[in-house]
Design goal:
The complex is a heterotrimer of chains A (291), B (532) and C (330). Chain A has eleven helices and two strands; from the N terminus they run ααααββααααααα. Chain A is mainly α and 291 residues long. With 532 residues, chain B is an alpha/beta fold. Chain B has three domains: 173 residues, 3-Layer(aba) Sandwich (Rossmann fold), CATH 3.40.50; 60 residues, no CATH class; 188 residues, Rossmann fold. Chain B is built from 21 helices and 20 strands. The radius of gyration of chain B is 25 Å and the shape is globular. Chain B starts with 11 loop residues before the first strand and ends in a 7-residue tail after the last helix. In chain C, 68% of the residues lie in helices and 1% in strands. The chains are: A mainly alpha (291), B alpha/beta (532), C mainly alpha (330). Chains in contact: A-B, A-C, B-C. Chains B and C meet through α2, α3, α4, α5 and α7 of B and α7, α8, α9 and α10 of C.
């Protein structure tokens, strides 16, 4: 198998992780209209809760993963309800909300550090032998990551296009005023969006940890700007843009390893972010009124 | 004030300017010339594109076609700060004072070419900035004194009253040493006594050599102080000249009223006063004494309105009359509002919008009236969001009322034509089977074909038993189609009555000025309005 | 010299360095409203470049690898450091300051911070990777030849001098027409444009100058502790400065000074003496960071203007108004 095919495979995995996270960011931004800088910590919380459940409480690993994902969603919902929304309802300017989420990221990452310590941990998965799939080489875990992402994206698509609440989310993204005029309870939809965003973040953190096998408290925060690159490249506010951006960034960063030193993978994401902002700041899929 | 390189020739020449918002041509071939040294007005009905035009001329928006020539130089496509430095200064419709800075500081920001703004001067030669500031401060204080704002000079600008903010907006603009000042509705929503004051200031400033162009709806003011008037409608310049002539211009009247009135004005066979004796059915919606605005300054005052089931009520009036504001206030969208709004016996005056939506009244705003990224079906589904069951059936039912939309089913809201969009907005509003529907200018910007289609639909909706309240720019249409018409002027009820009766009033005067002024004493006595 | 005096002197030097940094941040965030979420990176760049300009060529004995190595005297090295920080600020501004939305600059700066940190950590050729540089010669040591105790006092004076000069310059900027225009742009960039102010250009200037302040502060730090590595510029440092600015009073240079004292110095140092919990050396610093994060949020909720809020600009002049009373129209 060629190096190209191998790296393409890795690219798909990274893209899967990114897609989960980036869509979470886009959905939440679409409804609230500000970026959450503590999002990286949502990923970290997901992983640590999963670890505690499986390692500490010895729950079944799959059950732990599901509960952990849900717990981040609930956490995000409570965060919005009791911290962020009061700021927003007060009429706090965008600048303040961003600094608040920024301060929150410091608080959360250190809370995790304080509770769980700085050492690297791993989720319990036995080391696996990679299987050959055509020109690609995947372990079962890696395949499941791609699978999870595909399932999640499909489920999301169904949610957004077939369910009332999904359509209400899209409606709010278009115009909060008109949504309200139509009788939609925007507070409830906002809460649901945060729940969803948190779940996606938690899931993204978990699959990321499965992919890179070990994690420590700052692992989510370090990944944040790659997530942002995907979101901005795809078009901030558009979940489908986020998926597209994730695919591009994921493939680009992994496949760049063919040409350049793999230590520069993240630099590729960064370069793409800069290029996007210089050439087409609204991203690939432009959402009116968002950029 | 400042020296001009060219002291002859017009100061502003606009030629064939065009700008669109998406598919809507807001400015569509606007051409006019402004000569030096006068107070000019830019007037026109709602949606004529006046503010968009200002934004394009001042560089806030980029023209798609056409040219703008200022003082002999072509400034098309220039950025706004560059244009401002040439001496073209604009003010904003809603006062945009720099709230976190004092009044005096606000006055010190605009002057051009402040050497103290240079980083090296600021750091290493602070004396330059301070010396220049001294001169500017004196000038600013003089101006503030002139405008009666001297005592407020050290207050944070956000703490000024509405009228004071308006004065500051003008005074601040003058500090920028303009050759031309473009004012966006400087007289909108201010106390009648302040109107006189402001007029005086403009005339004094004109004497100092500043040319003015003001977008203005208050045609009485325009008549008093403007030498030259340009009329815009539907994005184009219609005519230009003196207001007294333009008032008699058929095209202008049509543009304002929407059509040559089929009932001739001046035929005072029945006056609106007889209206009190006309029997109306039991109203499903009763609005009493509604006073509301976007800030402490009310836009509408003590407005009354009634709507009966199955009948169409139209609300007309000149620009700035507060028609849209009235609908928003009725629908619970404005925080600053007082008065009674009674829907089927229930007092909904303090209810939030989404609660009203779920309890029998629907509202279709003028601008964003559909969800652009959702399909037609999905838009309707959103209208029926709160239905526990039977949503799909209701969608089908509503589509029967709007067969045109049925055909467009899967198209996204943003891709519909203007007429289809307005109809979708109405259809969405009907999803919850409301008793009352409020429509804000459903025919704005539509072709005559679509306009009649929309009014057909309105009749259909009414025939189902719904009470419809329509804000209509086109007075002719309103009189033709509505059962009862309210005329709102400067935020108050002016006339009301059956359509035929109202149609016989001297509407051109009401709309184009020349009518006797409102009861100033009543305004002032109530203590409402922008008191300084 | 008693260890007590030595400790206080070190604290004073750090205070001056933090003051300079907070003033720079005040220029960007407090005055112009620019959201630079990786201020510490510019500090670090300034520190590194100053350091490697003062160091000699890397040799086999020192076991370090780094660029430059010019053996330059401190003033010139500091100039290089400050310039490097300024150039990076310029580049970041070119990408992100065109758009007026704060999110964009915030995202770009966070990304820049992550990338530069990674780059320096991984590429040992540039600044010796995670180990960092060490053995930077003390500024002016050759010419002065002081004993270590006196040298500390000297450095207090040196840092104080820089702080004094930079503080005066920062105050001058704030009180000048430039400061006024920056605040106008912060309040309403569209209105500022409508009056001829090129918002983009002004924000770029502030971005660069603020970053230069960071660079100088970084250079001063490296000169003092003669070493620097990536452990010293975690993300937490930026937060510390934001907390300092918000607590002390954003927009107000005295507030920035107060904040620099209260947060990085008083709070950090006071908690330095808490006993290290055996087995969990990271716990106290973690809790400290949690408090800083919480402090940021709390200040924004309770008193966003800080302890010393922005002062009203007062102008003194001789002017007698012609109309004594404001026009009352009732």
């Amino acid at each position: 198998m060629s190096v190209l095919a191998l790296s393409f495979g890795f690219g798909l995995i990274t893209a899967s992780v990114l897609a989960l996270a980036a869509v979470g960011v886009s959905l939440q931004f679409g409804v609230t209209n500000y970026v959450n800088f503590a999002y990286g910590e949502f990923l970290t919380i997901g992983v640590y809760v999963a670890w505690t459940l499986s390692h500490g409480l010895h729950l079944n690993i799959y059950l732990s993963l599901m509960l952990a994902t849900l717990s981040v969603g609930v956490f995000a919902l409570l965060l919005d309800r009791f911290l962020l929304r009061p700021f927003a309802k007060r009429g706090a300017p965008l600048l303040f909300l961003l600094v608040v989420t920024f301060g929150l990221s410091l608080f959360l990452s250190n809370l995790i550090l304080a509770i769980w310590g700085p050492n690297f941990k791993s989720l319990d998965f036995a080391p696996e032998m990679p299987y050959k799939f055509g020109p690609f080489l995947f372990t079962t875990s890696q395949l499941s990551i791609i699978g999870i992402a595909v399932v999640a994206m499909t489920a999301l698509h169904v949610l957004l296009t077939r369910t009332e609440i999904g359509k209400a989310m899209r409606a709010m993204s278009d115009s909060v005023d008109l949504a309200q005029i139509s009788g939609i309870d925007i507070d409830r939809i906002t809460s649901f969006t945060w729940l969803l965003s948190g779940c996606l973040a938690g899931l993204a953190g978990i699959v990321l940890a499965i992919n890179i096998t070990s994690f420590q408290p700052s692992f989510g925060g370090e990944f944040l700007f790659v997530i942002f690159s995907a979101v901005i490249l795809g078009g901030i506010g558009s979940p489908y843009g986020a998926m597209l951006g994730a695919l591009v960034i994921g493939l680009a960063t992994e496949m760049s390893a063919v040409l350049i030193n793999s230590a520069y993978k993240n630099d590729v994401a960064f370069a793409l972010l800069i290029l996007t902002l210089l050439l087409r700041p609204q991203g690939i899929i432009r959402m009116a009124g968002k950029a | 004030m400042t020296d001009d390189s060219t002291t002859s020739g017009p100061i502003l020449e606009v030629e064939n300017l065009a700008y669109s918002f998406g598919g809507l041509k807001a400015v569509n071939g606007s051409t006019f010339t402004i000569n030096r040294g006068g107070i000019n007005a830019l007037i026109g009905p709602n949606g004529a594109g006046k503010t968009t035009l200002i934004n394009v001329v001042a560089g806030a928006l980029r023209a798609e076609a056409g040219t703008v020539r200022f003082n002999g130089t072509y400034i098309t496509g220039w950025q706004s700060h560059r244009i401002a430095l040439q001496g073209l200064i604009r003010t904003f419709q809603i006062s945009r004072e720099l709230g976190g800075m004092t009044v005096l500081e606000n006055m010190l920001v605009p002057p051009p070419q402040q050497s103290g703004e240079n980083i090296f001067n600021a750091m290493f030669r602070p004396g330059i900035g301070h010396r220049q500031d001294k001169v500017l401060v004196e000038r600013a204080l003089e101006q503030l004194d002139d405008f009666g704002l001297y005592d407020s000079r050290d207050q944070y600008a956000r703490n000024l009253s509405g009228g004071q903010k308006r004065l500051l907006e003008l005074a601040r603009g003058v500090m920028a040493e303009p050759k031309l000042m473009i004012l966006d509705e400087p007289f909108a929503g201010i106390n009648p006594a302040l109107v006189e004051l402001l007029e005086g200031h403009l005339q004094k400033l004109r004497g100092l050599g500043i040319t003015f162009v003001m977008v203005e709806h208050n045609l009485n003011v325009v008549e008093r102080i403007c030498d030259h008037v340009v009329v815009m409608a539907e994005g184009r310049t219609l005519a230009a000249g003196k207001l007294s002539e333009l008032r008699r211009n058929e095209e202008v009247i049509t543009a304002y009223l929407g059509g040559a009135l089929t009932v001739h004005p001046g035929d005072t066979s029945a006056s609106a006063l007889d209206v009190k004796h006309i029997e109306r059915a039991e109203p499903i919606l009763k609005v009493t004494d509604l006073t509301a605005g976007y800030s402490k300054v009310p836009v509408i005052q003590e407005v009354d309105l009634q709507a009966e089931p199955g009948k169409v009520v139209a609300v007309v009036g000149p620009n700035g009359a507060g028609k849209s504001t009235m609908l928003k206030a009725m629908f619970g969208m404005l925080r600053n509002s007082s008065g009674d709004v009674n829907l089927a016996g229930i007092d909904i005056a303090r209810w939030p919008a989404f609660r009203i939506a779920r309890n029998g009244m629907a509202y279709v705003p003028q601008v964003i009236n559909v969800f652009p990224s959702l399909s037609v079906y999905e838009n309707l589904e959103m209208g029926g969001y709160t239905l526990k069951a039977g949503r799909q059936e209701r969608v089908a039912e509503v589509l029967e009322i709007f067969p045109d939309l049925k055909a467009a089913g899967a198209k996204k809201g943003g891709n519909l034509s203007g007429g289809q969009r307005n109809m979708l907005g109405m259809a969405r509003a009907l999803m919850l089977n409301p008793k009352v529907v409020l429509l804000d200018e459903p025919t704005a910007g539509l072709s005559p074909t679509y306009t009649s289609i929309v009014w057909e639909q309105i009749h259909r909706v009414a025939s189902l038993g719904t009470a419809v309240v329509v804000v209509e720019q086109n007075v002719d249409l309103a009189i033709h189609h509505a059962d009862w018409v309210y005329v709102l002027v400067a935020g108050r009820n002016r006339l009301e009555g059956p359509a035929s009766v109202v149609g016989r009033e001297d509407l051109p005067s009401i709309f184009l000025g020349g009518a006797p002024p409102d009861n100033l004493a009543a305004d002032i006595g109530r203590g409402q309005g922008g008191i300084i | 010299m008693s260890p007590y005096v030595y400790y206080i002197s070190t604290l004073v030097v750090f205070f001056f360095i933090f003051a300079i940094s907070t003033w720079g941040l005040n220029l960007q965030f407090g005055t112009a409203g620019i959201l630079n979420f990786t201020y510490i990176t510019f500090f670090a760049i300034g520190g590194y470049f100053t350091g490697v300009s003062m160091l000699g060529r890397p040799d086999a004995l020192s076991n370090m690898r780094y660029i430059l190595g010019l053996s330059l005297p401190f003033p010139i090295a500091l100039l290089i450091g400050a310039t490097a920080a300024g150039i990076l600020g310029l580049l970041v501004g070119l990408v992100a300051l065109r758009r007026l939305r704060s999110d964009y600059l915030a995202i770009v700066t966070v990304s820049v911070g992550a990338i530069v940190y990674d780059f320096v950590n991984v590429n040992t050729a540039v600044f010796n990777g995670a180990d960092g540089i060490a053995g930077v010669p003390f500024p002016f040591n050759d010419s002065l030849n002081l004993d270590p105790n006196t040298y500390t006092f000297f450095y207090v004076g040196l840092a104080g001098l820089f702080a004094l000069v930079l503080g005066i310059l920062a105050a001058r900027i704030y009180n000048s027409p430039l400061g006024r225009t920056l605040r106008a742009i912060r309040e309403d960039a569209d209105v500022a444009s409508a009056f001829g102010k090129d918002s983009y250009r002004f924000r770029m200037i502030v971005m660069v100058v603020g970053c230069i302040y960071a660079g100088i502060a970084g250079g001063l730090l490296v000169g003092f502790i003669s070493a620097f590595n990536t452990g010293g510029w975690t993300v937490g440092e930026t937060f510390l400065l934001y907390a300092a600015l918000l607590v002390g009073g954003r927009g107000n240079n005295w507030g920035a000074l107060l904040g620099a004292f209260l947060v990085p110095v008083l709070f950090q140092e006071a908690t330095r003496f808490l006993p290290v919990i055996p087995g969990h050396p990271e716990l106290i610093p973690a809790i400290r960071n949690m408090i800083v994060g919480g402090l940021l949020i709390a200040v924004l909720w309770i008193r966003p203007e800080g302890i010393l809020p922005e002062r009203k600009a007062k102008f003194h002049g001789v002017y007698t108004p012609k109309r004594k009373a404001a026009l009352k129209v009732d």
